[in-house]
C-alpha cells in the first residue's frame, strides 16, 4: 500500500456512550463525556491546527495553535484542553482565530532553521504543515540571526545508535517528554530551564546514550519536527509506502508499519491499531531490524559429508535431494524412530505446522519437539491440568482493570518491555504490585513505581511460597466460596492439604528466606485488594517444579475468584514471538495441533484421512530424550528449524556430544550459528521481513506477518519442508501460506474461524475462534472453564536436588536484558550491542569481596558440569549467595554451567538454579592485553568441531 498515515484525533478517546451533542462549524456531532473539543471537531471532519497535541498523549495546551471560539465562553480557549458540553457551539475558523494562529506560527518560525528543502523531515513535518494551514506568508520578526537571540547554534546529539536529537529544531512542545512519561513510563526526558532557556534534556546534562532513555522510540514518534529523527530516515530519505506486519522478537507481538522507500526498508513504526501494542514499541522491534540484511546471512544452501570437511555451496535441488536421501538411508538402517525434528518459536505458525506434519506424515513418527520445551512447557501442562487449556487467560488490555498485580519470575520491563510499560502506567494509576523474585527487578522500585511487597525468595522455593500464600487465603477465611462452589472441583481435598502447618508462612520462611509477615501481608493484598492478576515468566517454569508452580498459581487464582473477567487471570509472559503458536501447532511429541493427545483415535483419524497416512498413537521423543538417544546410538538424524540448541539448551557439553554423535544434522536458519557448526546441511531461512504467515503472541493473539520483500533465499521455509517431503516420496504441497492456515482451521477447533482474509479484516484474532466466538476470545473461562470445572491440584513442595555445597557455594540464576533477545543471533548483529557488548555476571558485594573480585574483573564461573569466563558486575540486586547472568553471547556460554536438572512433568530445564563457584581470573597487567584476553576467551567445553 502507499504510505499509511493514521488519523490523529489530537487527544485520547474517552470511554462510554456518545451522549454529548454539539456542533462544530455547523456540523453536528455526538461524543462521550470528557471528550475534548479538538477530538470532537476531528470526528465531525473538521481539522483544528495543532502542534503540542497528539492522540496518544493527554492534552497539554502549550502551543496555542488550536484556539477556537465557543458561544458563551470568553476568549479563545484551547480546543485540546476544553471538554465538550451538551449544546456547545464551536467555531474553528474566522479572521480573528486565523490572526492569532499566524502570530503563534511567526514566533515558532523566527527561531527555527529555514532549511525545509534539505531537512530530513521535509514532507513529514507538522511545523511545516501548520505554517501552510495557518496561511503564514511572512515573519515580521525576521528569522535566524535577524530575529535576535535564538537557538539555532545548539548542537546535535548523535550519541544514540538509532536516532539524532537536533536541538536547533526543537520547538519545546514537550511531546517527547510526555511520551517518555505517559507512554513508556521511563521519565528519562525533561524540559530544562525556564522561558527562552527552556529546552529538552535527557537527564542531568548527559547525551541520550548515557541517560536513562531506553530507546523505545516513543519520543521520535511523538516529535512533530525533525528534532528527533531516525538516522535511517536521514540517510535514506522519507519512506513512500507501508506494509503492515508483526515484530519477530518477544511474545508481546507488536504490530508495525514497515515503511519503505522503493524496496528498501527505511524504518519500523509501531501501528496505532495494533491489538497488542496500540502504537508503542521497544528498542528491538522499533530499531533492531538490521540483522535481516547483515552480511552474515546465509543465502544459499550448503552441505558437507563430515564435520571435518569445508562447507560446499549447492543448489536448492541438490540440498533437498541430499537431505531426503540421507534421511531415508538412516531410517532404513536404524529404524523409523531414528530421526526427528525440532520446530522453532521464531518461525510462523504455518512453517511450524509444516515441520510437524513432515515428522508425522513423512518420517512416520512423533519425534517432534519445540524450543518451548526449554521455556514454557510447564505452562502448557499446568494450565491444562487445572483450567483445561494450555494458554494464558487474558488479553494485555486486561491489566488496565487490575487492582493488584502479582509478578512472579518475570522481568517485564526488560523481557516484555511494551507490556511492561503498560503495566507501569496501571501501577502509577494506583494498582498495587507484589513481586516474587530473588532479584530486585526494576519494577520493585523505579520512577513513580514501587512494589508494595518484594518477596526476595531463595531460588528453587517458588512452590513453597505459592503454597504459603494459598495457606493464608484458606486459613484466614479469604476464599471466594461462591466462585469455588459454582466453578471448581476437588477443592475440599486441596483445602485440607494447603491448610497443613508445613505450608504456613512461618514454616515456609525458614525455607525461602522471606519473612513470614511479608508473605501474610502479600497474600491478604492479593486476596482482598480487588481484581488481582498474576503475570509470570521463566522464573516460574524453568525449575524442577515448574509444572507444580503453574498449578499452584492456578489454585491461588481459583481460590480467590480471580479468573474469568478483566483485570484478573493467570498470564504466562512468553519469551519468543511465536512460543504460543509453536505449541498450538502440535510441536510436542505427545500432542497434535490444538493440544490433542496422539492417543486419541478420533483426533488421529482427522489427520489420517486428510494426510492419507497412518499416525502413530504413542508419543515420540522430547528434546532431552533425543540428545540421550543420539549419545547412546539409537537416534541418528535431526532437522532443526530456526533454533540454536547448542547455545540455548542446558549442559552445553552434553548437547555438543549429542550433536556430534548424529549422522545427519540439518539446520534451517539465517546464520551459521553454534548449532550449525555441527550440521551437515544448512538450509538458509527467511527473516520476518520476508515471511508470509502468522505469529501467535502470549495473549493468544494471531497476527499477520506480511513480507516486505521476496525471500532473499528464493524460497519460503514451508516450501523447503514441502520439497523435502516430496523428495522423500510424500505428496506435500501448498500454493501459499494462506492455504496452510486453511488446513489448520479445518483440523484445529480453536482455530476453526481463522483465515488470512478474516485476519486482514479484523487486524488480529485471539483464539479460540469458532462458531461460538467468531471474532475470537479476549478473556478465557468467563462462564466456565474449558474443562468444565476448574480443578484444584495438590502441589507438594519438593526441594530441588541442585543445592549449594562447599565446592559450589553460590546459586546462579539467569535472565534477559532489554537490548538483547534470546541467544542474540539477531540482536548481536545490530547496533543494540552498544548497550550490551557481552554477558556479565552480577554478584553481590559481599560475595565479591570475599573472593577479591572488583567491578569489571574477569572471573571464572564453574559448576559441576562446566566452566566459563565473563566479567563481574558488583550489584546488590541479588541477595548474598545468589549471582545472575544473561545468555545472549556465545562467547560467554552461560549454559556451559547449567545442568540437566529438569521439570518433573515436562523436562523443562532448571536454568534458574545452578550451584556455582566464582573465582578471580588473573589478567595481563596492561589494558590492551587485558582487552585482547577478553575478546579471545571461549567457554571451556568439550566435543564438537572446536
Overview of the structural elements:
The protein is α/β, with parallel strands linked by helices and about 950 residues long. The protein has 29 helices and 39 strands. The chain has a seven-stranded mixed sheet, sandwiched between helices. A six-stranded mixed β-barrel has the order 34-38-35-37-36-39. Strand 5 and strand 6 form a beta hairpin.
Characteristic key phrases:
seven-stranded mixed β-sheet, six-stranded mixed barrel, 39 strands, 29% helix, 946 residues, globular, single chain, disordered C terminus, alpha/beta
Question: How are the SSEs ordered, and which strands pair?
Answer:
Elements: E1 20-24, E2 27-31, H1 37-43, E3 69-70, E4 88-91, H2 95-110, H3 126-133, E5 156-157, E6 163-166, H4 175-184, E7 189-192, E8 199-202, H5 218-222, E9 228-230, H6 231-236, E10 241-246, E11 255-261, E12 264-270, H7 283-287, E13 302-303, E14 312-313, H8 316-334, E15 339-343, H9 349-363, E16 368-370, H10 377-386, E17 404-408, H11 412-415, H12 417-428, E18 432-436, E19 445-446, E20 449-450, E21 453-455, H13 462-475, H14 481-487, E22 488-489, H15 491-498, H16 505-512, H17 516-528, E23 532-536, H18 538-541, H19 546-559, E24 570-572, H20 579-584, E25 591-592, E26 596-597, H21 601-611, H22 623-632, E27 637-641, H23 645-648, H24 652-661, E28 664-669, E29 681-684, E30 693-696, E31 701-705, H25 717-727, H26 737-747, H27 756-762, E32 764-766, E33 790-791, E34 810-815, E35 840-843, H28 845-849, E36 858-862, E37 867-874, E38 882-886, E39 914-920, H29 927-936
Helix pairs in contact: 8-25, 9-25, 9-26, 10-19, 13-16, 13-17, 13-19, 16-17, 22-24
